[in-house]
Every structure is written in C-alpha cells, then in structure tokens.
Specification:
Strand content: under 5%
Distance between the termini: 75 Å
Structural class: mainly alpha
Radius of gyration: 30 Å
Number of strands: 0
Largest sheet: none
Order of helices and strands: HHH
Low-confidence stretches: none
Length: 82
C-alpha cells in the first residue's frame, strides 16, 4: 500500500507542469474588487393589516415563554405603518 502511494505521488509530480496566468497590465498585477449590498428593498402595494393566520405564522418564530413585549414587537414587524 505504501509503495502504491509513493508511485502515485511520483506520477502526479512528474506529470505536473508549470502554471501560467493571464495578467491585465504590463506590471503583471491583478486586483479583485467586490461590491456588496447589505440592504434589501421590497416594494409593497395595498398593504393591509395582518390576518389572524398571518399573526399566528409570525408568532411561530417566537418562543412560547417569550414576554408579551417580544410578541407585540413580532406582530408590529408585520403590521404596515398607519
């Protein structure tokens, strides 16, 4: 088994060639830039007050022993402003 691993390692090393790269400028530099957004915008039209089933669905994510203020906050989060 050890002999097989050595043979495989030598085969991989023997077949490996030099790597090449593509550069975008004469100084052989490259840069990676990322633009990330941390906000999500959602457009809603004709928002209504949440139904009882909407409230029940929202409260599924609140622990059963949560204080009433946490439950009110969860309901307020799905209620459109006046």
């Amino acid at each position: 088994m050890r002999f097989f691993a050595v043979v495989v390692l030598l085969a991989v090393l023997a077949s490996a060639s030099t790597s090449s790269a593509y550069y975008l400028d004469a100084d052989r530099r490259f840069s990676v830039r990322v633009r990330a957004y941390s906000q999500l915008g959602i457009l809603t039209e004709n928002s209504e007050t949440p139904s009882r089933s909407d409230i029940a669905h929202a409260l599924r994510f609140v622990p059963a022993n949560a204080p009433p203020s946490q439950k009110r906050a969860q309901i307020a989060s799905i209620t459109p402003p006046d």
